[in-house]
Structures are given as C-alpha cells and as structure tokens.
Amino acid sequence: MTSCGRSRAIITTAELAAPVLALKFRRATSILVASSRKTNPADLASRGLISAQDIPPLWFKGPDFLCLSDDQWPQEFSPQPSEKDDQEVRSKFHQSQVHACTRIVGEGFENLEMAVQSRIESGGLNNVEALHELICEAQLEAFREEFNELQSNKTVSKSSRLNQLSPFLDTFGIIRARGRIGLAEVGYDQKHPIILCPKSPLTILIVEQRHVDHHHPGVNHLMGILRQTYWILRGQELVKKVRLGCRKCQIQVARPANQEMADLPQERLAIGRPPFFHTSVDFFGPLEVLVLRNKIEKRNFVNTRGQPQSMYSDNGTNFVGANNLFVELESKKPEKIKSVRWKFQVPGAPHWGGIHESLVRSAKTAMANVLDQEQSARRHLRDYELRTI
C-alpha cells in the first residue's frame, strides 16, 4: 500500500474516533484540489519521474501548510461554482485545452470507453456528457472556423467542406448536419447526425468501437450503423482503413497464397505421337451391364487402340498387379512382349492424377442422364453399348 493509501486508512479510522480530524482531512483535501501542481503531491506520479532520486520531499512530507495552524491554512476550495463561472471555465477549457485533450484521446487510450471513463473521472460528468465534451473538442480542433461562424449565427462559407451539409449548432454546442429528414419518425441523432473529421483520433476510436461491437461487419454495413449517429467526412475511406488494420478481418478475408505451377510433363507435350501413346488410367463405377451368353465381344485395350508406351495411374492393387504381370512377361519373352513403362502416383496424393480425375468427372456427368433413362425403362445397357457411350 502506498503512503497515500496508508494515510487514507488512518484518516478513515480517525473519522470514527475523532470527528475533528475527519473535518481537517476533508478541508485539506479540498485545498489540495484547488492548489497548483507544485504544492499537490498527487501530481508527482503523473510527471514521469525517472528514478527515486528525482522524488522531491513533497511526496513524503506533504505540503507545507499542513505544519501550520488552522487559521493559517489557504482558503478552502468551493465545490459549487456559480453558473457564470462554470460557463467561463468550460469556454476556456474548450479553447485552450483542446489540443492536449485531442492528443490524449489519440495516444493515451486504446478504445472509446477508456477515453470516456477518463473524462468522467476527471470532470465529474456522466457518460453522455463526457462523450459530448470529447466530440466538442474534436470538432473545435477540425472545424474551428466553421464553429466560430455558427456560434456567431452565420452560415459557413461556400468554400468550407461542411457547406453542403447545412451544419448547425445544437444545445450542447455540437456541430450537426441538418439534412432533409427532419419530419421522419426517427431519433434526433439520425435526423441530424454529428459531423466528424476522419483524421480526428476520436473519430477513429468511434469507428473501431462500432466495428467491434457489431462483430466486424462489412464496409457498407458499418457505414449504415455509423450514419445513424454520425456523419463522417470521407467515412468510407476511414472504415476501409479500420477494417484493414483489424487483425480478425485480415484473417477472414485472407486468400491462400498462389503457388507457381510447375512445367507440364514431357509426355503431355509430345508432338506427332498417336492417340493413347501415353495413357492415364483410373477406375470408376460400378456400372451395371447386360451380359448375354455367346454374345460377349471380348476386346482389350491393346487390340482396340494399340499398345501405349507409358501408363499413369494411382497405386491401386489392380494397377500394381498389371505392372508386375507386364514385367514378368517381358522377362520371359522379351522378343514378343513390348515393354510398357508404368508410372505410379505418390501414395496419398490423388491430385497428381488430376488429368484423369477431371476426365472421370466429365464422363460421369455425361453418362448420368443416359444411364438414368435406361434404368428408368428397366433396361440395362449391353457391354458394347456401354463401350459406344
């Protein structure tokens, strides 16, 4: 516990035992609130002290007036200023501190809730008042000339970027767009949205908050949500920028990397070769055919289309067995059996046979209608009819 926390605990105990000490504590707190930073030890924590050697004695001993008698203490701070004084303070705050506040919103806070909560704690405002105050500061930073013209009951100049929006000041001093839906049965914010600059840090925080609260919508969807309350100049560009910087949106819209395709095999680029000189084979089915006695026309691939030089297939047991049979026959009768090079795909990689896999799909699609018509007529194709198809 810090020294401030220990003092607070001690005074709380003293308040129950000695009301006099509690009264003096409240008075000292009120004086410290109104004092300058040089005499208030609570401000030392926000000055960026580098080491313990930089801590002045004020942090350990407190202000000097605590060692004096009560009648020599400074004048106590009044927590209830008059309405005129309050307006003057707010006016000076808007004009002189706007740069610092805008910088704090952009650099010191990660989201809009933190910025609003900080203003609530420092200014004693509720959520709506704190947000309106931040908006006023951001507008005054971006539209100072327009604000002064509207405050003087004048229209903005024709060269202003707000001219087409017919801006006006509401009761809180916020610049709003007049629009043409004043008679619509919608909320006041939707009738007259708040005008914001896209470069303002506060505007970026507002867009980011709406983007996260509505589960990362698209550009047009998010623009519709924002325009129910705000009119952001060049808002679509800002929304796109926020979505591009969102890690979750980057993952959702990410595209797989495009790999450079390798060269085609030499067999597929051969010129002047007969059909089926290089053959890729695969099985599909089963298909039901009608086999009649003594009418089976036995043919094989070699007799019909000639012997291929190379065969490509997967590692099916029937293909591996056929290759073993060719090797065995060639070793027994090399003068009669022509060699056939059988090249197998890599196991577990069906995409290597993409050329025959795509043709199998095309053949299935073309044969589906014919076979369905024949089966609907309760008729099966004969073997030679299936070969013709």
Would you give an account of this structure?
By secondary structure, this protein is mainly α. The chain folds into 3 domains: 3-72, no CATH class; 86-252, no CATH class; 277-388, Nucleotidyltransferase, domain 5, CATH 3.30.420. Helix content is 48%, strand content 7%. It has helices at residues 3-17, 19-34, 58-61, 83-96, 98-107, 112-123, 127-142, 144-151, 188-191, 201-213, 219-226, 235-245, 247-252, 301-305, 317-332, 354-376, 383-388, and strands spanning 167-169, 175-177, 194-196, 230-232, 278-280, 289-290, 310-313, 341-344, 381-382. The strands form 4 sheets. It has a 3-stranded parallel β-sheet, with helices on one face. Strands 1-2 form a two-stranded antiparallel ribbon. Strands 3-4 form a two-stranded parallel ribbon. Helix 5 (98-107) packs across helix 7 and helix 5 (98-107) packs parallel to helix 10. The chain is elongated, with a radius of gyration of 42 Å. It starts with a helix and ends with a helix. The relative contact order is 0.05.
Helix content, binned percent = 40-55%
Radius of gyration: 42 Å
Low-confidence stretches: 1-19, 77-86, 88-107, 294-298
Helix and strand composition category? mainly alpha
Furnish the topology, listing elements before pairings.
Blueprint (H helix, E strand, L loop, with lengths): L2 H15 L1 H16 L23 H4 L21 H14 L1 H10 L4 H12 L3 H16 L1 H8 L15 E3 L5 E3 L10 H4 L2 E3 L4 H13 L5 H8 L3 E3 L2 H11 L1 H6 L25 E3 L8 E2 L10 H5 L4 E4 L3 H16 L8 E4 L9 H23 L4 E2 H6 L1
Parallel strand pairs: 3-4, 5-7, 6-9, 7-8
Antiparallel strand pairs: 1-2
